[in-house]
Amino acid sequence: MLTSEFDYSLPQELIAQVPPEKRGISRMLVLDRASGSIAHHHVGDLPGLLDPGDLMVFNDTRVFSARVFGTWADTPGKVEVLLVEPSIAHPGAWSALCRSSRPVRRGGVMALADGALRATVLEKTPDGRVELAFACDGEFFEVLDQHGVPPVPPYIHRADHDARVEVDKTRYQTVYARETGAVAAPTAGLHFSDELLARIDDAGIRREFVTLHVGPGTFRPVKVEKIEEHVMDAERYEIPEPTAAAVAATKAAGRRVVAVGSTSVRTLETCADAGGVVKAGKGRSSIFIHPPYRFKAVDAMLTNFHLPRSTLLMMICALAGKELVFRAYAEAIREKYRFYSYGDCMLIL
User: Fold this and answer.
1) How far apart are CA 107 and CA 121, in angstroms?
2) Most Cβ neighbours (<10 Å): which of 65, 200, 223, 226?
3) Cα gap 193→4, rounded to integer Å
4) pLDDT digit string (tens) for 244-265?
5) What are the structural domains of the chain?
6) CA 154 to CA 281: how far, in whole Å?
7) Cα separation, 134 vs 122, whole angstroms
8) Residue 315 pLDDT > 90, yes or no?
9) H or E stretch at 48
């Protein structure tokens, strides 16, 4: 299929720049694949739209303040670093993206986070990343949380010293986040408050977790002409034994596995066999789900509205069909839904 087939026009004013006033009040478009119907709800209606015995699977990754600023140690030249993940080639180091006022060279030293972090360039990699060895005054993630900023996506505009960064530190994070390692939030999960999760439990809907540490590749546009030629960045995942067992029990009972967000979908589908059996374990996933993919484990999905030509849009087209998804997007635009990370959501049944 051609990448151009997944393009659409979105008015800029529909790109949400801030989260809703509180969690659990966003609008939710409900798309029924069997009937093709489109209905308008709010995310708080979820407990009544799912059935007792259904299983919701959430991604419990925790976003850390991965964007950090400073200068080169030997000059006042500015440098910005986006940490991506622990380095594979250099144990104890980090793989990162870097913007710099001068060329990045091996052996260069950066003074970051008001001097609390010192990073030495170990090498530049063919994919455009740099491998950095850190010396830190204090606990690493605490220093990042104090001096860094949340790595919100580029379509959320933040100026230097923007007061909204403090909002991002709490709201660009799910209430159930616990496994630190993501540089992008699993945004479908941002809608859930503790109160809504309690109502889901009371409705007899089971909840389990996977972990997928979302990387910056989730925002990388598909630049090839044919989508089959696109290569996904690998991301770290883990599926616990209780989650795998819950999927099996849900399938055996004839109930639905409802993935919360594209990252939960990718994790489950990475580890599912042809019969829908999900195997517990950990690893790295580069699965690219696009039409005409046949889903093995996931029966339904809660997801935000996604960018044109994105792998995320292609995924939901694989689940619900391109024609139906684009009809739903046109309806959402007409009804002025809020789009992307801080925006409204869609439940695909």
Assistant:
1) 5
2) 65
3) 37
4) 999 999 999 999 999 999 999 9
5) 3-63+171-348 (3.40.1780.10), 67-147 (2.40.10.240)
6) 33
7) 10
8) yes
9) helix 46-49
Q: What is the pLDDT of residue 71?
A: 95
Q: Where residue 155 falls among pLDDT bands split at 50, 70, 90? A: very high
pLDDT tens for each residue of 136-146? 989 999 999 99
Dist CA 2 CA 8 (whole Å): 14
Query: pLDDT-derived band of residue 161, with 50, 70 and 90 as boundaries?
Result: confident
DSSP secondary structure of 159-176: -TT-THHHHHHHHSS-TT
CA dihedral over 271, 126, 4, 218, signed as positive or negative: positive
Give me the amino acid identity at 164.
Answer: R
Question: What pLDDT score was predicted for residue 218?
Answer: 78
- Using DSSP, state whether 261 is helix, strand or coil: coil
- Residue pair 75/81 in contact (Cβ under 8 Å)? The answer is no
For 295-332, b where at least 16 C-beta lie within 10 A, e where not — what string? bbbbbbbbbbbbbebbbbbbbbbbbbbbebbbebbeeb
Contacts of 106 (CB under 8 A, 6+ apart): 121, 122, 123, 124
Strands (E), the chain: 27-31, 38-42, 55-59, 61-63, 67-72, 78-86, 94-100, 109-112, 117-124, 130-136, 179-182, 206-212, 235-239, 257-260, 281-285, 300-304, 345-348
Tokens of 245: 């067992």
What pLDDT, on a 0 to 100 scale, did the predictor assign at position 127?
Answer: 85
Q: What is the pLDDT averaged over residues 276-293?
A: 96
CB 109 within 8 A of CB 72: yes
Q: DSSP code of 182?
A: E
**Per-residue pLDDT at 219 exceeds 80:** no
Rounded to an integer, the average pLDDT of 337-343 is 98
Residue at token pair 């409802």: 258
pLDDT at 221: 81
The mean pLDDT of 60-82, rounded to a whole number, is 95
- In one-letter notation, the amino acid at residue 339 is F
Distance CA 322, CA 326 (A): 6
